Automatic annotation (TrEMBL):
Superkingdom of origin: Bacteria
The keyword Hydrolase is assigned to this record: yes
Protein name: Histidine phosphatase family protein
Entries under PANTHER family matching the protein: BROAD-SPECIFICITY PHOSPHATASE YOR283W-RELATED, PE-PGRS FAMILY PROTEIN PE_PGRS11
Keywords linked to the UniProt accession: Hydrolase
A GO MF label: hydrolase activity
EC numbers: 3.1.3.-
Hydrolase in keyword set: yes
Amino acid sequence: MRLLLIRHGQTPANVNGVLDAEVPGPGLTELGQRQADALPAALADRGIERLFVSSMVRTQVTAAPLAAALGLEPEVLPGLREIEAGDLQGKHDRTSVQMYISTVHGWSAGDRASRMPGAESGDEFFARYDEAVRHVVASGVGVAAAFSHGAAIRTWASAVAQNTPDEFGTQRHLENTGIVEVEGSFEDGWRLVDWEGEPVGGDELIDRTAQDPTGERF
């Protein structure tokens, strides 16, 4: 199958560089809503048959315009949520952000036993994200879109794609409503088809001033 992993639209936390991975979390900024509104036209020819969202509000709001245009009802999969911040939740100082990023970077490099301070380990993250994607695959469609989060998408996709180095995702940015497209299955393996790091609606939907820690290169 072909899976489009779509990052949610911009949130207030993205603007201010805050680590925010609590469920249900905030909604979108005005720019984030415009990013979401641009998705139907940008994805009209992708052949999307099913939509999935995480348990966080920002993915559900982002998916709503596309769902309405396609006449689809998104299914909530909690496993698609952002990598937990634990003790770092709500912080935006450089030390906390670097600790979050270095932990995720370690998972990408293969140290999945390490744990985010006060939160999940790499093994636990991959287990719940794999479970969510397995549910998507089990839907039996040829093309699906899953709305998820910056650090989660980059970490999972770069690890499972057989045609990229494990740390590939740490070297690429993923702006709000950027898309990582993979194809394959757990049995036959996954390959990266495309990494669209910019918002699909165009350059006018990029906020160059945002301090977004989970969208920049790690």
